[in-house]
Specification:
CATH superfamily of the largest domain: Dihydrodipicolinate Reductase, domain 2
Number of domains: 2
Number of helices: 12
Structural class: alpha/beta
Order of helices and strands: EHEHEHEHEHEHEHEEEEHEHEEHEHHE
CATH architecture of the largest domain: 2-Layer Sandwich
Radius of gyration: 19 Å
Bound molecules: NADP nicotinamide-adenine-dinucleotide phosphate
Number of strands: 16
CATH topology of the largest domain: Dihydrodipicolinate Reductase, domain 2
CATH class of the largest domain: Alpha Beta
Strand content: 25-35%
Amino acid sequence: MNTSGPVLVYGAPGHTGRFVVDELLHRGLVPVLAGRSADRVAAAGSGDLERRAFGLDDPARLRAALADIAVVVNCAGPFLDTALPLARAAVAAGAHYLDVTAEQQVVRDLYAELDGPARAAGVAVVPAMAFYGGLADLLVTAVLADETRADEVDVAIGLDRWWPTAGTRATGARNTFARQVVRGGRLVPLPDPAPTGTWDFPPPLGEQPVVQLPFSEVITIHRHLDVGELRSHLNTAPLDDLHDTSTPPPAATDEHGRSAQRFVVDVVVRRGADRARAVAAGRDIYAVTAPIVVEGAARLLDGRHRGAGAVAPGTAFDARDVLASLERGVEGLAIGYPVGDQRMR
Ligand SMILES: NC(=O)c1ccc[n+]([C@@H]2O[C@H](COP(=O)([O-])OP(=O)(O)OC[C@H]3O[C@@H](n4cnc5c(N)ncnc54)[C@H](OP(=O)(O)O)[C@@H]3O)[C@@H](O)[C@H]2O)c1
């Protein structure tokens, strides 16, 4: 296993990939910019950074491209097209693998195929280390503290707007798998039509109409926590933006390149008579994905991770420590455990 090599960012020319490269540089880590198009990789980033252009259809070439790499961060989606070949190659080359997928089937496939090979290679495969997926997984893990069992978990995501990237639109079109929820402790298809309701979000959103729309957090949470019922809700206003083909991609409105989009992730966990809650609020779901996945890369490099295998964020890392680190490092990100609701111990 490589322990000191650089961090290869595949999909570095993309919107999220650019945030990830900036975050790696900001933290003093060494990025290698990679992607399928030599022209776009050459134009990505600035300064004297190493660049590698390669597609994902030649396993031998892929392994060679990753030979000296310690951590692969996959930002190229739809991940249904990229995750398995890149993660396979990373494991074969002795590199850790992280991605930012929101697609449930991708996480299922990676867990099913690569847990054994990753354990044998002594590396970690951690998909969905991102706003959708990892953030909720870390919040639920932090709320449960040392416990692994809950009767019910609700993950409610509120966005004031959604300016989708081309990658988000392509991923939505590509992902035709039935979405999964957890009921009776098992993964089952989301009811059709998806249940709707209202959710009383913390400020600035307040009460909002929501629809159940599960992302990769369902698969990661189910991987390591014994949850009876797991529901994921999204407010409906940003879905109107997403469904409107004229909604533009995100535009930078601050010195960090972030859009003006605001998010709240509200996680409520119930076990018996105990109820506990965690809330994360911040700005720009694409931008905040970079510190989340780079926090993972940094911990895989410096040894602050638990073992090997294809695992959930809350298994690979100390969830409370990761969240505290993110809150310290990301301007405007607030993570709290609201008064009256206690973490379970
Ligand atoms: N879970 C989350 O919270 C979260 C957060 C952010 C992003 N994402 C996901 O991350 C993905 C990228 O988003 P984005 O905003 O960065 O989109 P983007 O700006 O459109 O960039 C997409 C990138 O993926 C590359 N790519 C797409 N298909 C590929 C393939 N088959 N082989 C190799 N490279 C491929 C593109 O390469 P080219 O430049 O050569 O076209 C480009 O670099 C999307 O799936 C999005 O949903 C998830």
